[in-house]
Amino acid sequence: xxxxxxxxxxxxxxxxxxxxxxxxxxxxxxxxxxxxxxxxxxxxxxxxxxxxxxxxxxxxxxxxxxxxxxxxxxxxxxxxxxxxxxxxxxxxxxxxxxxxxxxxxxxxxxxxxxxxxxxxxxxxxxxxxxxxxxxxxxxxxxxxxxxxxxxxxxxxxxxxxxxxxxxxxxxxxxxxxxxxxxxxxxxxxxxxxxxxxxxxxxxxxxxxxxxxxxxxxxxxxxxxxxxxxxxxxxxxxxxxxxxxxxxxxxxxxxxxxxxxxxxxxxxxxxxxxxxxxxxxxxxxxxxxxxxxxxxxxxxxxxxxxxxxxxxxxxxxxxxxxxxxxxxxxxxxx
Length: 333
Fold this sequence. Notes:
By secondary structure, the chain is an alpha+beta fold.
């Protein structure tokens, strides 16, 4: 998965963890206060530590510095032992905290970490319940504990899959299965940042299908759509997985070449142009493209980068189409 997709999923996880942590920490505080002032000081202290730990998680989420490993290393052993202490001290009512603890694990950690945490929690608390309570109570606890754990795992997995699918739909062009414009700004800004930080070369290629309106008018939009689909397949097969390909308009495509300077990109663009010209996309008709190329060395922001590349594309059209232009007044055909 590329860095931008990962960042979107991370943002979603941070937001959900933030609100869950704030809610749980706030609800635990009255329980902590009650036990500190009226009942068991040890329970109150444990509840305060749990609440403060959750507030810390919320703060880390707000600052976008939260790592699930922190929760896994600290909260898993602490809450496991605290709930065992609580159950041993107050009896069956202590087991009520098991269920909320399980849910916290699944929503605050990765799936793998949550599974491990639940196994650790069960290995400590389930035998304790069987030791402390009557058989029928232990059976009820074991069954409900297992169901809550299973339901939480399934529910979280479904949410993660649905979010991933919705995000994919939001950033993908339905016709060509290429990226749409949603991630374009972020991708170009990330490329500029990486180029400035690590001196990595990036180049933009903007490609427009020549006389595409005439294809639609003469042969129909269904044929035009098939042409665009086949172009998308061709570009994905030809380019590397590290390169990003966008459909940014009706018949306009943008390619962000990773670790490729402008000189090399001109050769790549020319190979793309020749490859498309040689494709049999429409019987008895040749489909050609005009291409603009722009390196990153002279631009200061993504809009300027796009503007330079667009200018080169329009120059390719003005010079007769079916050619590559990398700077005004020079071209390859």
